[in-house]
């Protein structure tokens, strides 16, 4: 029979029904561009789950031929093409916008 030792650290109870579920939606405007024109991409991360999402990040890769002009978000690093998003409670959204030249 197993024996258990109780320590002063206590027991952490985790509610398994509180699970984050992230969704990523990306839109562009305009939908078509010619060489030299700019396009704005908007990325929206939504927590559709029941728990808070923590430690969420985005790492972007631009296709060949596109040049980054601007990257906006809560905590974004244009040199790394990455963003760290805030904690997302149930139903919360975070948006990152980037402008590129074709």
Describe what you observe in this structure.
The protein is an all-beta fold. The protein has a single domain (22-101), classed as Immunoglobulin-like (Sandwich), CATH 2.60.40.1530. The chain is 0% helix and 41% strand. The chain has no helices and seven strands. It has a four-stranded antiparallel sheet, with no helix packed on it. The radius of gyration is 20 Å and the shape is elongated. The N and C termini lie far apart (68 Å).
Net shape: elongated
**Radius of gyration, whole Å:** 20 Å
Number of strands: 7
The assigned CATH architecture is Sandwich
**Considering the protein shown, what is the CATH homologous superfamily?**
ntegrin, alpha v. Chain A, domain 4
CATH class: Mainly Beta
Which keywords apply here?
3-stranded antiparallel beta sheet; 0% helix; 4-stranded antiparallel beta sheet; mainly beta; elongated; Immunoglobulin-like; 102 residues; single chain
What is the gist of this entry?
The chain has 102 residues and is mostly beta strands.
Show the helix and strand layout.
Layout (H helix, E strand, L loop, with lengths): L21 E8 L8 E10 L9 E3 L7 E6 L2 E3 L4 E3 L8 E9 L1
Antiparallel strand pairs: 1-2, 2-7, 3-6, 4-7, 5-6
């Amino acid at each position: 029979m197993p024996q258990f030792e109780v320590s002063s650290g206590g027991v952490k109870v985790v509610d398994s029904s509180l699970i984050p579920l992230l969704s990523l939606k990306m839109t562009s405007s305009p939908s078509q561009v010619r060489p030299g024109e700019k396009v704005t991409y908007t990325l929206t991360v939504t927590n559709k789950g029941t728990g808070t999402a923590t430690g969420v990040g985005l790492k972007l890769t631009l296709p060949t031929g596109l040049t980054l002009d601007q990257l906006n978000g809560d905590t974004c690093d244009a040199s790394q093409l990455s963003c760290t998003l805030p904690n997302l409670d149930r139903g919360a959204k975070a948006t990152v916008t980037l402008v590129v030249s074709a």
